[in-house]
Write a structure and sequence with these properties.
Structural class: alpha+beta
Radius of gyration: 23 Å
Distance between the termini: 65 Å
Strand order of the largest sheet: 1-7-9-5-3
Number of strands: 10
CATH topology of the largest domain: Ctag/Cox11 (Pfam 04442)
CATH architecture of the largest domain: Sandwich
Largest sheet: 5 strands, mixed
Order of helices and strands: HEEEEEEEEEEH
Helix content: 10-25%
Number of helices: 2
Strand content: 35-45%
Shape: flat
């Protein structure tokens, strides 16, 4: 085999490996963030911890909408103080002021980033798609706790405040709702 063909074959192999790694990067990064709390990604649990500490944590709530999302969205309360390990319950309010059904999904993060792995959700409206009818207003709960292990973390143990932020994004309507939405007639050609 000529050196040019060998080099071309090696470069093609490198390109295939790089393309394969790029497809694997997104799921790997998502997994890494969920396991470590990196980038403010919160943890999920099915139940609260058994241990509740005397130390408290001030939790702030923030809400925003992606550009073009027509809902109104805000926390029902701006903040609360919970004991570390104690289950907290907060609500966010969403309102669809339009005359059409709109579906949305909430993305979330926690700041500072060191708190992400210790801020744990038991249940959250962000786990599923939300569909609001025209003029509908809903109160959406999030049940959470701050993991007591935060006091053993070299950096996170000094935190006294955590901010939980949500951003709602418009998503496609589920089939059962899309079928009932009025269809815009196609323009008539002259």
């Amino acid at each position: 085999m000529s050196p040019r063909l060998k080099t071309a074959g090696q470069l093609a192999g490198v390109a295939v490996v790089m393309a394969s790694l790029s497809f694997a990067a997104v799921p790997f990064y998502d997994w890494f963030c969920r396991v470590t709390g990196f980038g403010g990604t919160t943890a999920e649990a099915t139940q609260a911890p058994e241990k509740i500490l005397e130390r408290t944590m001030h939790i702030r709530f923030d809400a925003s909408l992606e550009a073009g999302m027509p809902w109104h969205f805000k926390p029902a309360q701006r903040s609360m103080t919970v004991r570390i390990g104690e289950v907290g319950l907060a609500f966010y309010e969403a309102y669809n002021p339009t005359d059409r059904v709109i579906a949305g999904t909430a993305s979330y993060n926690v700041t500072p980033d060191q708190a992400g792995g210790y801020f744990t959700k038991i249940d959250c409206f962000c786990f599923t798609q939300q569909v609001l009818q025209p003029g509908e207003r809903v109160m959406m709960p999030v049940t959470f706790f701050v993991d007591p292990e935060i006091v053993n973390d070299r950096e996170a143990k000094y935190l006294r405040e955590i901010t939980l932020s949500y951003t709602f994004h418009t998503t496609d309507l589920p089939e059962e709702h899309a079928a009932t939405e009025p269809q815009t007639p196609a323009p008539v050609a002259n």
